Amino acid sequence: MVSGDLLISAIGEDNRIVGCSDLNTNRFFSVLLGTSTNKLYFMYLPQQPVTLETEHGFLVKTGNDDVCQLGTADDTPEIIFQKVLRMNSNAITNLPIPTSSY
Fold it and tell me: What pLDDT was estimated at residue 89?
């Protein structure tokens, strides 16, 4: 149990590794982010992705600007883009016809 800040110096080395490297099948490794419902975790199964699980969504910021939000505090399964959406010259397909104007 650590009480207080845990800071790891990078002086003297090119890389620092924090984590777990010996998981067995069906075992989890989690990093809690404030509560047990806000965490980054990985379950060792073939082709299983790393999962970010949050209680109130996930917000991506650049500086002080909101860029993208995944999910919301009211559990609405939506992705909110705050800026112009760019897909690197790829098309966005299968969009529904808008039902209201903003």
Answer: 60
Phi and psi dihedrals of 74, rounded to 5?
-95, 20
Q: What's the number of CA atoms in the CB half-sphere (13 Å) around residue 29?
A: 14
Q: What is the mean pLDDT of each run of 10 residues along the chain (102 residues)?
A: 84 84 88 87 84 86 87 78 65 70 62
The dihedral through the CA atoms of 20, 24, 25, 26 has a sign that is: negative
CA distance 52 to 57: 10
CA pair distance 6, 17, nearest whole angstrom: 14
CA atoms within 13 A on the CB side of 70: 7
- Which residues on neighbouring strands pair with residue 23, listed in sequence order? none
